[in-house]
Amino acid sequence: MCDPMSAAMVIAVVSTGYQAHTAHAERSRQERFRKQREELERRNALQVQALRTEEVHTQQIADADAAALEIEGNRRQAESAMATATTVAGEIGAFGLSYQGLIGEFARQQAEFEGAVSTNLAMKNAVADINKRSFQIDKEAAFINASHLATAKPNYGNYALSGLNTYFNMRRGLAGPKAV
Question: What pTM does this model have?
Fold first, then answer.
């Protein structure tokens, strides 16, 4: 038969080994889950960046189209005004400096308007480029955050102490009550 103290030691060692094995298996499971979550976070960050960038790009195209339409509409109005001025000047025979001044004023206003629309479009494009860079930075930050997801590490020292505690408790129980 086996010595009771040896049996207590074996039970304590087996108990400690089982606790350590269970902790290791749990950590492995958590690590797999963390990696899956990290990959999901990365994919989500890429999708968000792609969608936001596409949205900004689409808005840039719409802004460029709107600016072109504004410029074209203004150009037509200026041509119409010039044609009207030419017709009126022809009817009254006033093709002098005032006619040239009037035509020059129409051309100046048209150029001023086109310049303002082009400047606004350039500013919108600059903001869009800044937004796209911001989306890139957000994606990189999400990658960094995803890679820092914590996984609890088992403390094997605690299991060793727990095993010793089990051993001493069993030993104390086997020794019987002390006389007072």
Answer: 0.57
Structure tokens, 32:
């797999």
Element containing residue 160 per DSSP (H, E): helix 156-175
Q: Which two tokens stand for residue 132?
A: 């796209």
**Up-side HSE of residue 14: CA atoms within 13 Å toward CB?**
6
**C-alpha span between 111 and 74 (Å, rounded):** 10
Alpha-carbon distances, residue 25 vs 32, 79, 151, 156 (angstroms) = 11, 81, 13, 13
List the structure tokens of 157.
């020292």
pLDDT of residue 126: 93
The pLDDT tens digits of the residues spanning 14-27 come to 777 787 788 888 88
Q: What is the spatial distance between Cα 73 and Cα 80, in angstroms, rounded to a whole number?
A: 11
Given this model, what pLDDT does residue 150 score? 62
30 HSE (CA, 13 A, CB side): 12
125 burial type by CB count under 10 A (0-12 exposed, 13-18 middle, 19+ buried)? middle
Does residue 133 come out as left (phi exceeding 0), alpha (psi in the -120 to 50 range) or beta? alpha
